[in-house]
Structures are given as structure tokens and as C-alpha cells.
Amino acid sequence: MTTKIAFLGLGAMGAPMAARPVDAGYDVTVWNRTAARTEPLVAQGATAAATPAEAVAQAEFVVTMLSDPAAVTAVVGELAAALRPDAVLVEMSTVGPDATARIRELVPESVGMVDAPVMGSVDRAASGELAVLAGGSAADLARVADLLRTFGTVTECGDLGSGSARKLVLINGIVAGVAVVGETLALAERLGLADPRAVLEASPLAALTARAFATTTDFSVEMAAKDLRLAGEVLDLPIMAAARRVLESAADQDADLGVAVLDLSKKH
């Protein structure tokens, strides 16, 4: 019998991710607060649900891919009572390990849980080439292994919360690094370097420079600032706090991170 899954959250990353198990032959029910976003997936073969509880009622695996801890907590709170006793909740949003632990407390003890945030851009989500950072018990990870592989390459990080912890470390390093590239470019221009971008691309900053100039990742300033905020709740990080304040000053919070950082650097 075809495995039933529910996928909740069809934002910039969630929509292409939800298409992966549909294409892989899973019986997928999707939900999004803005119902119109379910229509392309229904056209691909998914079923749309009107509420989170309806989406998960028959699902063996329940995937959440939402914007922040508050959104995940609210949605899981809505659906918890409707979960199958043998279901596994797969939390793929970037929420941090503390929120992961709080979300675990919302669902029945019989329900398994894996945290599996991802690294990668929208195009990699569409092609199933994300890096999936998974945490949970060996039994729960084994049950959802095939599903997680539809999204990309899976790294098992340890117990529940370890995937979220690793994601927070990696994404904050990248975000702060892109912010540094923006200021480095501003310095290079002020010093009169003929081609500042070429200088950075020929240096150890090449990868971060490429990320700063990327314009199609759909990783917004608002989301980047949120991730820096989550890290700041764990530890006082002055450099990342400064980067967050810079990002929060950007006029367009929906702009791609790299575009916004480069724009801000021109204001020096």
C-alpha cells in the first residue's frame, strides 16, 4: 500500500520540496494557510486539505516546513490530536533545538519525531539536491529514511534536536559571512580597486562572494535575520548581532539576502 504523508507549509522552499514525494509516488496531502498555493501540487497529483488536522488524519509521516518557531508551534498545536498513534512528525523548518524540544512536547508520546532542517536553495529543493540534517532516534530515522532521501542527501546528526543545532551553526556562519562580503566590497571600492568582485572571487572568499551575488535563492533578508536571532537566543554573539541589526535595517525585507547585503554595502 502506498505510504501516506502530509506536507504542511508551501512557501518558497516548501512548495518544491512537497513536489518531491509526489513525484516519488507517495500519497501526499498538502496544506497551506493560503490555500491557493496548494493548486499546483494538486495538479501534480497531491490532495489538498482544508485544515492541518484534516491533512494529517491518515498520514504515517507528517512534514512541517514553516517560517519560524511560532508558526510551527501553532500548526502542530492544531494537528496534534489528529495524528495517528504510529505517525512520525518530520520537522524540517529552521527553528533551533530549543523549539524542537518544545514541539516534541506538543505531540502524543506514541508519535515519533525527527528534526530534519535543510541546507540549499530553491532550485536544489526542486531537483532533490538539498542537504538534509536529520536528528532523532535510530528507529524514527530508519522509518523516514526513504522519504528524506527524496529531498536530497541525508546526514544523520544524532538525537532529536541535533539536526536543528547543526543547521543553526551552519546557516549563521553563511549569513554572517555574506554580510562580511558586502562590507569587504565596500572597502575595496573605497580603496579604488578596479574590480572588487574579481578580487574576492580569486580569494578564499570565493564561495561566500558567489552566494552574495546569487539572486535566485529565495532566502530573504527577513529569514536570514530570523536565523541570526535564533542563534542569539542560545549565546551572546556580538558579530552576528551586528549583522542582524544591519539586515533588519534593509528597506526590502523580502529581498534575497545577497541582493540586500550588496545594496546596503553601497550606502557606506
Describe this structure in words.
By secondary structure, the protein is α/β, with parallel strands linked by helices. It folds into 2 domains: 157 residues, NAD(P)-binding Rossmann-like Domain (Rossmann fold), CATH 3.40.50.720; 95 residues, Orthogonal Bundle (N-(1-d-carboxylethyl)-l-norvaline Dehydrogenase, domain 2), CATH 1.10.1040. Strands 3-2-1-4-5-6 form a 6-stranded parallel β-sheet. A 3-stranded mixed β-sheet has the order 7-8-9. The protein is elongated and about 65 Å long. The model has no long low-confidence stretch (mean pLDDT 90).
DSSP summary: helix tally: 13
User: What is the ordering of alpha helices and beta strands?
Assistant: EHEHEHEHEHEEHEHEHHHHHH
Shape field: elongated
What gap, in angstroms, lies between the N and C termini? 61 Å
Biggest sheet statistics? 6 strands, parallel
Task: Estimate percent helicity.
Answer: 40-55%
Number of strands: 9
Poorly predicted sequence stretches spanning 5 or more consecutive residues: none
Structural class: alpha/beta
Question: In summary, what is this structure?
Answer:
With 268 residues, this protein is of the alpha/beta class. Helices cover 51% and strands 15% of the residues.
Give a topology summary.
Layout: E1 4-8, H1 14-23, E2 27-31, H2 39-44, E3 47-48, H3 52-56, E4 61-64, H4 69-79, E5 88-91, H5 97-106, E6 112-115, E7 118-119, H6 122-127, E8 130-135, H7 138-149, E9 152-158, H8 162-190, H9 196-201, H10 206-213, H11 221-234, H12 238-248, H13 257-265
Helix pairs in contact: 4-5, 8-10, 8-11, 8-12, 8-13, 11-12
